[in-house]
Design a protein that fits this description.
421 residues, alpha/beta, 5-stranded parallel β-sheet, 4-stranded mixed β-sheet, 9 strands, 48% helix
Length: 421
């Protein structure tokens, strides 16, 4: 019984800065401990929430004293330690008792977790090993979530063969946890541990070198991960789910400063080939609110690109002779994670840029001809950028796309305002 392991977040007011925090979880018998050891061997600071949950109720702690005061001295074993089965029988009998238990242990686990994170080196990759990460909705608090993935029947067999658990007990425990589908929904990385000895460790080493180390470096330096070339890929049906995971993190960072956060851009249009970059839009009340999010978004893994402050301005029906460029001002952030490139546009509610991002998405979703036309333009831009890298490739690509955006703007408005859009 992992008393208090449900709450492994940092305590309120704890400033963890731009330290990379990785959430690690998996179903019973999946081999999460194997992955945790592999990460520790590579240099990660591993924080085990189960161990913390036991530590905060050891003899002589304030946690154990509080439990005795709440549930009685009979929850103590003869040696003065916590008799976990007796406490479980009392605490899990009804919702009120469980809430009382959680109110005692969760803050203590959170406080100790915060202390361990604060004690880690500034360049640490902190891995929080949390069995109930999914069940307790902690995924959005992490910069990245790793799920050790093994099918339920294999996990049951492992529990029976290697841990001596009765099959009926193994099935009951697994059924009380999150489902495989629920875990996969929050997984930025699925680590398949159904292979032979050493297989998952090799995958962890590759992940460490190719993604986690550069992610930590980018996060600490406030540097976005950037593509070097322009290349369209077939539409990925998982793009919307990936976008939702990023949006969940953005909501944690933004709090009430955002009125909405949307998946926009080409990856939000089903079936449309695109660059493998997720575009997201945060809507705020004004630019002051956008600027106020700069540090929070950076700490969440989305550093600002201060040199990008404006959308390509487009004439509006209200100003056909010119463009009020101030209406198209935005703040632009990008993901620091090299394994999931993303653009985050922070725009003001009701501004032309904010409205056009949503309108273009909805128009392309609904209009087959417009979608095909846009794809042809994207292909032309891709061809023009072929052989180029970095800013040169981006400029060549946009030189083709932006005139189409300008011309498409009044057409999208007409579609929106038609009787049956």
């Amino acid at each position: 019984m992992a008393l208090g392991a449900a709450d492994a977040r940092a305590a309120p007011g704890c400033e963890t800065g731009r330290m990379l925090r990785i959430g690690l979880t998996g179903g019973m018998g999946a081999g999460k401990s194997t992955v945790a050891r592999a990460l520790a061997d590579l240099g990660a600071v591993v924080i085990d929430s189960d161990l913390i949950a036991r530590e905060v109720v050891e003899p002589g702690t304030e946690g154990l004293a509080a439990l005795v005061a709440a549930f009685g001295a009979d929850i103590l074993a003869a040696d003065g330690s916590l008799d976990r089965p007796t406490l479980a029988a009392k605490a899990f009998g009804d919702d009120a008792a469980r809430a009382k238990l959680n109110s005692i242990t969760h803050p203590l686990v959170g406080k100790r977790t915060a202390e361990l994170i604060a004690a880690a080196p500034a360049d640490a990759i902190v891995v929080q090993d949390i069995p109930l990460l999914v069940e307790n909705g902690l995924a959005p608090l992490m910069n990245l979530v790793l799920i050790v993935d093994v099918d339920a029947e294999t996990r049951i067999r492992r529990l029976v063969e290697f841990r001596g658990v009765l099959e009926s007990d193994a099935r009951a425990r697994i059924s009380a946890q999150a489902t495989d589908e629920q875990r996969r929904a929050v997984a930025d990385v699925l680590l398949d541990n159904s292979g032979g000895p050493g297989t998952v460790e090799a995958e962890v080493r590759r992940l460490w070198g190719e993604r986690l180390v550069p992610f930590e470096r980018n996060l600490r330096a406030g540097t976005p991960a950037r593509r070097t070339e322009i290349r369209l890929v077939p539409a990925d049906p998982d793009w919307p789910a990936q976008a939702q995971r990023l949006i969940a993190r953005l909501w944690v960072a933004c709090g009430t400063a955002a009125s909405r956060i949307d998946h926009v851009g080409s990856t939000s249009v089903p079936g449309l080939p695109a660059k493998d970059v997720i575009d997201l839009q945060i809507t705020v009340a004004d630019l002051a609110a956008a600027d106020g999010l700069r540090d929070a978004l950076g700490a969440a893994g989305f550093p600002v690109r201060p040199e990008v402050t404006q959308d390509n301005p487009k004439p509006t029906p209200q100003d056909p002779a010119g463009v009020d460029t101030a209406l198209w001002v935005k703040r632009f952030h990008q993901n620091a994670d090299p394994g999931r490139l993303a653009n985050v546009h922070v725009r003001v509610e009701g501004s032309p840029g904010q409205q056009y991002a949503l309108l273009l998405r909805d128009w392309l979703r609904a209009d087959d001809a417009a979608r095909a036309e846009y794809l042809a333009v994207k292909r032309e831009g891709e061809a023009k950028a072929a052989g180029l890298t970095g800013a040169e490739a981006t400029s060549a690509y946009l030189d083709v796309k932006e005139p189409w955006f300008d011309a498409a703007y009044p057409r999208a408005l007409a579609w929106r305002d038609s009787p049956t859009p």
